[in-house]
Amino acid sequence: MTRPGPLSGCTIAVTAHRRADDLIASFERRGAKVLHAPTLQIVPAADDQPLIEATRRVIANPPDDVVVTTAVGFRGWVEAADTAGLAADLLTTLESSRLLARGPKARGAIRAAGLVEHWSARSETTAEVVDWLRDQGVAGRKIVVQLHGLSDPALQDELRAVGASVRGLEVYRWGPAPDPAAVERVIAQICAGGVDAVVHTSAPGAQALLDAAALTGQYDALVSALRTGRVLNACVGPITAGPFAALGLEPLVPDRFRLGALIRIVTDRLTDDNARSVETAFGQLVIRGAAAVLDGVVLPLGPGPRAVLAALVAAGGDVVSRPALLAVLPGAEDVHAVEVTVNRLRTAVGRPELVRTVVRRGYRLAVESAGVPT
């Protein structure tokens, strides 16, 4: 029998476009089911004539400083220059400029091109880069800023306000979701508690999820699901978390702003959720977004049986009345629906004795040790 992964039974929504394959593979190796719904997509500008013309202007009029905001953007710029036969001239030009990296990934891309950064931001934020330049004094200096998906007029305006001549360079841009219907379905799953976690890797992508929810009439339900913690909302760093923080939400953010750290903290949080697990007479029972795990075996559940089982787990072996179960049962109108759902639940888990009837009172889980009579 294959040993279940730590995330067996979990459903995780991934909103990222870039590097989504790495995230998906990592979560799937740990046993999770992944729903991939990119809320935006990266549209390369490598074949765009404006980028090539901008590169020629950089070569003809070398900048004093170049702000490298993303690794993918810097690599894309060099690759586009190479396609146009301009790579050697561009690299020679950049050698004479101060290269300022927004963080370690941007720094790594600079070094991979055979160049050396002059300085790198510790916080991995554009704001720190702007502060550093302002402190250094940039009056009269020519600065090129490699933009990261969205134009940032505020950043450029801040530098212009202290006397710099600033040019933005767009290597790629954010385009609309490749599959809006998939995004709408994932939002509905989040609102219904059908996923255990939703994971974001960019601020524009996070904002796009909120925007898509508003367009489909699910905004309030989405914010409620994220605010209550019913669904774990995880972001790779504080910048990515910004759109949620602006709403007073507190996403889970790792100490190190890396995909590996994000994967670890999501795994740790989901496997350490004692509020959704209980020891039963048949082994540990854990509630997941669209399933339960009983003694290491994943049991897919529909919304109704899952809602009833979650209420029983939360009660920890105490009796839950039929009216109380009716209140959590989606779309149900009378207690007969509770009885039908309990029967479906017993069939789904394959252990009918797990859910025990307490005459005239309701139902409870069999949490006593195996072999001990009720």
TrEMBL record:
Any one Pfam family match given in the protein's UniProt record, by short name: HEM4
Q: Which residues form the OmpR/PhoB-type domain?
A: 296-365
CDD domains for the chain: HemD
Keywords (A to Z) from UniProt:
DNA-binding
Which Gene3D superfamilies would you find in this protein's record?
3.40.50.10090, Winged helix-like DNA-binding domain superfamily/Winged helix DNA-binding domain (1.10.10.10)
| InterPro entries, alphabetized | 4pyrrol_syn_uPrphyn_synt_sf, 4pyrrol_synth_uPrphyn_synth, OmpR/PhoB-type_DNA-bd, Sig_transdc_resp-reg_C-effctor, UROS/Hem4, WH-like_DNA-bd_sf
Name the UniProt record assigns to this protein: Uroporphyrinogen-III synthase
Q: Which organism is it from?
A: Kribbella orskensis
Taxonomically, what lineage is the organism?
Bacteria, Bacillati, Actinomycetota, Actinomycetes, Propionibacteriales
